[in-house]
Specification:
193 residues; 5 helices; DRAM/TMEM150_Autophagy_Mod
Amino acid sequence: MLCCMPGVAFVPALLVSWSSAAFIISYVIAVLAGHVEPLVPYISDTGTKPPESGIFGFMINISALLGVITMYIRYLLIEKQNESSHFVRSSCNIFSLCIGLMGCIGMGIVATFQELSVPSVHDIGALVAFGSGVIYITLQSIISYKSCPQWNTYFVCHIRMAISVISCIAFIPMIVFASQISMTKIDWTPGEK
């Protein structure tokens, strides 16, 4: 089975490294080109204008693919562990995988439809990506607790749940503040709201 193959643990590390590089590289190019202000721009702002938009789109699509692979490996791992322990219903594991895959599709939409080109599609993709991501990590935290102590330590479960709670808390203001913005614009002039 794929999840039991030696070395498969490199995939989540590759996902984190590649995604971080995608954000950092597009940020550096956008700042050097003068397309964004260096102080905390939105991630999407750093991938809106060429040449960084091409790099951002390509790298985020690869991140979405790596996310799919990582989630599928996690799904297979839980299925294999569940064969001997029966700590979670298979349908819960499948549901969690489907939610995670929706988040990866949202990432692909964000990467493909730039913020200024097709803002409504971009925003829907971002909502799907972040919303599904929050639900996915919460479900995975619950599954981790159900697998304790045989397959996880409580320390790991507590860290996963803390990340889930922080994500849920961060998601709420994101929705509230995003709904207050009527237009997407990068270049602001003095006097504008």
